[in-house]
Amino acid sequence: MAYAQGAIVVGADPFGGSQQRPYLVLSNTTHPFHGTEYLAALVTTTERAQAVPLAGAYAEGQLPYESYVNPGNILTLKETAIEKRVAQATVDVVASTIDELTAYVAPESTL
C-alpha cells in the first residue's frame, strides 16, 4: 500500500526505545521509491521550539496524545517497517515541516 504525503503512520522505532512510534510521511509520489520507501519525520510528544504541533491539524483521524513533528529528525522509512496509517495531517503541517527542514539543509553562505 502506498502512503500519501502527510500520512501519519506507525512503525518500528529505529532507536529501539519502544516497539513502535508515529511518523509523518514527507515525500510525495515523485520520490523514486514511492510505495516502498518514504522520507519521514519523527512524531514526538516532546514540545520543542522548532517542532510543528499537530493539535487541531489533522485532516483525518488523530493521535491519542498531544504530538509534534520534529523536522530535525528525518529518516528513510521502508514500507515493511510500517504497521499502519492512523491519521492524515493537513497540508499546512506538511508545508511547515518541510520549510523548517529546508532551513537545516540549505547551503550555507560560507561554503
Automatic annotation (TrEMBL):
Gene3D superfamilies: 2.30.30.110. One of its GO terms (molecular function) is DNA binding. Pfam families: PemK_toxin (PF02452). This is PemK family protein. The lineage of its organism: Archaea, Methanobacteriati, Methanobacteriota, Stenosarchaea group, Halobacteria.
